[in-house]
Amino acid sequence: MNIGIVYYSTYGTTFALARELADAVEAAGTEPHLRRVRELMPDEAMDDNAKAAAQAQADVAYADVDELPSFDGLLIGSPTRFGNRAAQMSQFLDQTGPLWQQGALAGMPVGFFTGAATMHGGHESTVLTMSTFAYHQGMVIVPMGYTSDEVGETSSGGGPYGPTHYTPSDGSKTSLSDHEIGIARHYATKFVDIARRLN
Ligand SMILES: Cc1cc2nc3c(=O)[nH]c(=O)nc-3n(C[C@H](O)[C@H](O)[C@H](O)COP(=O)(O)O)c2cc1C
To answer: Beta strand 109-116 with 73-79: parallel, antiparallel or unpaired?
Structure first.
């Protein structure tokens, strides 16, 4: 089975989460296809950290709308922007109109992941607002649920809506916590299990 992991990341943390998901999808015996969504910000609007993160992602192939129907499951990730997905991800998803017309994604299992600079600034709302895409496409949303004891722990990202990261802008936490990694890997394993049952 082929699992697409399509993400956008300015500073690299959502990219790190996407890589954990890809690694766990592979460990579960399926093939991950990591794809990044194109940057829309002009070069002059990007600070040094964003430029460094973009450089680190240079080896990842760009997401292609026409490739999406070939996947057996799709994981979609974007950092929070004012409690919603980033414009870069919206622009990509807005290109899937022809797939919607064909019903090409209907029935495909899908999950969403995100990250935010504050604990209460958009983890859940971003997963929920991204998920309207799946309703319109007729996809099968796979929630995390409280399927592991770790899900109830609230000091860093990840919850019943899906894998997330908490990356405060004061630089006090710059990488994924063990908890965020554990919960993301747990989710990926569960996602593959559901995808197998649906395919
Ligand atoms: C324009 C803008 C809006 C943002 N809005 C929020 C927000 O509503 N809540 C929040 O907690 N963080 C917010 N952030 C912080 C980002 O979510 C955070 O930088 C991002 O999750 C880091 O992920 P990345 O490393 O993948 O880019 C915002 C950042 C930017 C640039």
So the answer is: parallel
